[in-house]
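Z., the sequence and structure:
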Amino acid sequence: MRPPLAPRRGEPLSAGAFARISDIARSEAGLMLPPSKLNMVQSRLRPRLAALGLDTYDTYAKFVAGPDGADERRLMISALTTNVSHFFRENHHFELLRDQVLPELAARARAGHSVRIWSAGCSSGQEPYSIAMTILEHAPELAAHDTLILATDIDPQILETARAGRYTRTQIQGVPEQAAARHLSEIEDHYVVGEPVRSLVRFRDLNLLAPWPMRAQFDVIFCRNVVIYFDSDTQNALWPRFET
């Protein structure tokens, strides 16, 4: 059996193939790929060409744009997405949640209302877990009521990492010491998120540009890591959808 082909040594990503890939990335996921990203796109997609047995980027661009390329388009988006996240990233957002939002949400929960928080573009899970830790540290009564954090991302592979809730010592550096002691367990040189935190979070695969299956309104929406990849038109179309 002949082994899969890889891109021919020195075979560059042409401007035409880059334009087609860039157009697909924008229409499928809102990703903005200016010409300055050509080398990045070339290096990240090289393994996808090898996996498919394709030897040129032009062939790959034609395939991914065609009727048989739907599954590959998802994998392409996954390859092109930079999944960088940290616990309590830009901590002032969590301070705002703690000081100004949680007291009102706790009052709503005591009155019998559900509490729904959305982490849109949750990447490897640190953001929704940080939200859950903030709740358990500063408004633990919410965990006894109908409280849910929906965590969504377009990348199914990174969602598997998020669900595992398993991080290195470097990856947990943003977690306050007391919260880390209560909510993380050290297992085989990694730190695993505890069940009280995990029970508040549900991970789902979702493309923000596609129709949303959720019908109820959210009390809080975190959308920070993903919109930096969107152009202004895509961002401006997204904000009103969050409001409704």
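The two ends are 55 Å apart (CA to CA). Residues 106 and 142 are 6 Å apart (CA to CA).

Let me know what you think.
H.
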